[in-house]
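Worked example 4.2. Below are the chains of a multi-component assembly; read each line carefully before continuing.
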Amino acid sequence: MEPAASESKRTAIQRIIGLRDFGVLVATLAIAAAFSVATPVFLTPYNLFNLLRQAAELGIIAMAMTILIVSGEFDLSVGAIYAVAGVVTGLLAMKLGVNIWLAALAGMAAATLLGYLNGLLIATTRINSFIATLSTMMIFRGVAMVLSQGQPVSTFRPGLFFDLFGRAELFGVVPVPIFWLAAWGVVMYVVLHRTTFGVKVFATGDNREAADLAGIKTMRVKRAGFLITAFAAGLAALISLTFLKTVTPTQGTGLELEAIAASVIGGTAMSGGVGSILGTFLGTFIMAEVRTGLVLLGTDAYVQEAFVGLVIAVAVIINVRLSSRKK
Amino acid sequence: MAESPFLAIEQVSKRFGPTRALDGVSLSVGRGEIFGLAGENGAGKSTLIKLLCGVHTPDGGRILFEGKPHRPRDPEEAGRAGISVFHQEIPVCPNLSIAANVFLGPAMPSRGFAPDWRGMNRECAGLYRSLLGEEVDPTRLIRDCAAAERQLALLVRVLSRAARLVILDEPTTALTPPEVARLFGIIRRLREQGITFIFISHMLEELMALSDQIGVLRDGKNAGGLQRGDFELGRLSAMIAGRTIARQPRRGAAGGGGDFLTAAGLSLPGEFEEVSFRLGKGEILGVAGLQGSGRSALVRALFGAPPPARGDLRIEGEAVQIDGPVGAMAAGIGFVPEDRKTLGIFDDLDVKLNLCMAGIDRFSRGGLLHTRRLRSLAATMRDRLSIKMQSLDAPVTSLSGGNQQKVLISRWLALKPRILLLNEPTRGVDVGAKQEITELIRSLADEGITFVISSSELEELLVLSDRILVMHRGRVSREFAAGEVTKEQLILAATT
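Applying the procedure described above to all two chains together yields the following structure tokens:
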């Protein structure tokens, strides 16, 4: 008697409704429908591609952060890491004349190193990651400011590198950042939902003591989470640099909170052990569609921010209700 | 009127679902008396206390307190009636002073909106003097107080609220012998002032030292009582144990020890000292002892969580250094922890992942999870242990307690261990599942797996074990061959 037999008794519809991400999907579609009715411009390929391109950096970071949050930690320093990676790449390429590819590699390495430091700090001191990464957020931001002396770096010469990460449009319509968002999404999905490492991430966040007793090196799992998140911040910084052709030491301020918000809207539990990459992707999408939708409606920019906050609250409430009903 | 006792419990019953926690229990306590309440775990002591303090209400019978019917709906109402319970888990505010903890609540002395600290400190010191006959610095933070000081603060707190009956639930477990003596002195002094006590303890000698009379519960029923003067250790432990159940030792062959697993002088400061034993292959060693006797810490230490600080551990004559769960697994040791919920189950994950979590890397194929292999192993274990579930993909929390426990056992069994450590293997499972798990452990031992089992249920140890190690205050007090020991002997060895 294979258990698949009892599984197939449920209809396809029941299975879809039973999915953890169903609530977020409904919210995403409902918001899209509302804006489509309100303004005809919303549901056009141009707008949707534009929306996704703008969401690419946030999405890349948020999906990585989801892995970290599921493992029971989070990282407030990603915004600053994103700035350091951009500044390091920009300075090497522009001030020292280093080849842009090598400069980008150094930027990614810098980001990953900062993620390693976050993990090291938490592993050795066992400080709560909120406090630990709050402090590294300020330190890393300071590093970006000192390196750049507070000045933006720009006037990059265009080239293949810039096309590849930010400027090109696949098939003449799809901005290349969307490709990176999708590719990174697939990687993150496989890592969290299809590997033994992913199982350890869930176990660590769900019940750390039990995970330790099952022979899982939970601290190593968390440290890997910090590395992945920082690496994602580096990748996002390259996309930003190549698209805007400029980097500023203040870029990505508040990005960490948006990434956490996207993750939470997508159903990730702040206490760890619950979360999904698809959910976070949809959470990112919700934040982006609310922003662009309000812009298209011509709403006051100050109101937009407040409205996004409202959406976060509503989405989380709906998600909590749906998941508690399932239990 | 003068005839009615201070507290009369008459034919009180309480059931939870199918289990009768209390079945027609009657007790009578006089004013200014110290009443000792004894019984095994699950005998009904805590249920009785919860009826008195309003956590539960009785299904049948009645309670008369000072001649009036007593049927509180919540602990607050019981407190107003004059009954207070005093146990280890009473919440304190560690960052507030002794005085603040004594008076914290709606009736806190105040001047306008500000708390009257000076008045509180003065009053608190006065209460300590008049009630306990002790001097105190009321401004000390609870955080800086030893366990004994905290207890006194809580005692003063309930007494300042005009408690006339104080229930002491295992007050001595965290105390050193001199602190116990001091507490007993204070309790006797308070008795002189007319306060009545119900004193619950597993330590029979303490019960006999302090109580004016002792009542014993067993399986939710009265099992007799003794008046001061008739106190005798043997009679008391016989009352607590009841008649010894007939049982057949598993098989005499393995008894007598062997050299498969040997421990010499294992110590973990604060938990246990100088524990040694020898165990043959396929033998079952039971570890008995009260809470805090070092029983579960010993079993955990064999798994390296945390490892013993000193001592020598050998498997098949070879010294093994177990520094953590990973090392223990490599040595072929598995461990089912005492608390399924907090230490074992991943409640957001499904059955199959819960079952295969130990050594999850076996299912890695270039890092990717080999789901098919994982499913098939999970299905094999499910069939072998007949674990009842809707499907392997069902959340583990949808399983009954007994089936969850089987999942945890199979988590280790799937690794084909040489040694299995079980802590409270049947806690919180129903009778049928208990029987199944017992049989499972026996048949696994017959297949050659060596067991070390710690349990608070003596009957379970008697049924399962080949030999039983009894621990008392961190040391091995006796070692018995299972065939020749009675439950009374175990109780005596564990409590004195």
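Take a moment to check your reading of the output against the notes. Chain B is about 35% helix and 25% strand. The mean pLDDT of chain B is 87.
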